[in-house]
C-alpha cells in the first residue's frame, strides 16, 4: 500500500468540528421547542434558524483542483453507475485504497458520456485534512490508477472556488473520417462513416451554430427549468493534424466547438446533424430553423461517443 508522509490527524481541528456540531444540535433542539405552534411566523422563524445554524457552523475543509486525462473507450462515462466501470468509480477506488481512513468528496467539472475521452479534464477534491505533499499524491495516485487514466496536477483552491460555476470555457473536438473503413485500432479515437460526405457544406453548416441559440432539440432527458439557450463561441470543421498514428486513415477531420457549457448529447447531436447535412438528408436552412425556439425538427442521429474529446477546460481567475 502506498502512503503519503506527513498526514498527521489534526486533533484540535477535529475537536473544534465536534464541538460545532454539538453546539448546533443543542441550538436546533431549542429552536424546535420554541416553534411548535403552527403559526406562519413560527414556521418562518424555524426555517430561518435552521439556515442560520448550518451556514454559521465552522467546518474545517481543504479543497484541491485536480487535472486529469483519460481514454474513455472502456468506460461507461464519468459519473457513478451501478455495476459499471466509470471514471469516478476508479478515482474513488484508488483514493480509498491509498487513504482508507479519510473522508473525501470528488466533484467533476462536467459529466462526459460513455466512451468520451479527455485531454484536460478536472475535478475538485474535498478533504477534512490537508495534503502535505502534493507531488507524492500525484505520484502515488498514478501508480494505482489504470493505464487509461492519468492525473496531471493538483493545486489548493479556496473554499469559494466552485468547479462548476467557475468554469469559463470548454473546448471539445470531435474526430471523424468517411469513405473507406478505418483500421480497427483507430476505433477508440475516430468515428468512421462509410458513406461519402459533402465536407464543404458540413463546414458551412458548422458556422450556423456560432452565437446564442435555443438548443432545446439538441439534447435529451431535459430536466425541469434547464436553460436551453446557450452561446457557442466558435464552431468549425478542420482537417485533423492533431491526433496521428500509422493506423489512422489517410484523411480525417475535427469538429472543433467551444463554449461555456453544453447540455447532455448536445455536441454529439450537432455532429449528427452535420453528418445528415453531409449526406444531403438535411439542408442549411433546416439547420438554421432548428435553432429557433419553435423548431419541430426531429433529430434522429446522435454521433458515437468514441469520437468526442474534451480538449481544454478553463476556469475564471
UniProtKB/TrEMBL annotation:
The chain crosses the membrane at residues 43-59. Residues 208-315 form the Pseudouridine synthase I TruA alpha/beta domain. The keyword Transmembrane helix applies. Pfam families: PseudoU_synth_1. GO terms for molecular function: RNA binding; tRNA pseudouridine(38-40) synthase activity. It is an enzyme of class 5 (isomerase). Substrate binds at residue 172. Its EC number is 5.4.99.12. The keyword Ubl conjugation does not apply. The active site is at 113 (nucleophile). It catalyses: uridine(38/39/40) in tRNA = pseudouridine(38/39/40) in tRNA. GO terms for biological process: tRNA pseudouridine synthesis. It comes from the Bacteria. PANTHER family: PSEUDOURIDYLATE SYNTHASE, TRNA PSEUDOURIDINE SYNTHASE-LIKE 1. HAMAP family: TruA. Belongs to the tRNA pseudouridine synthase TruA family. Formation of pseudouridine at positions 38, 39 and 40 in the anticodon stem and loop of transfer RNAs. Homodimer. This is tRNA pseudouridine synthase A.
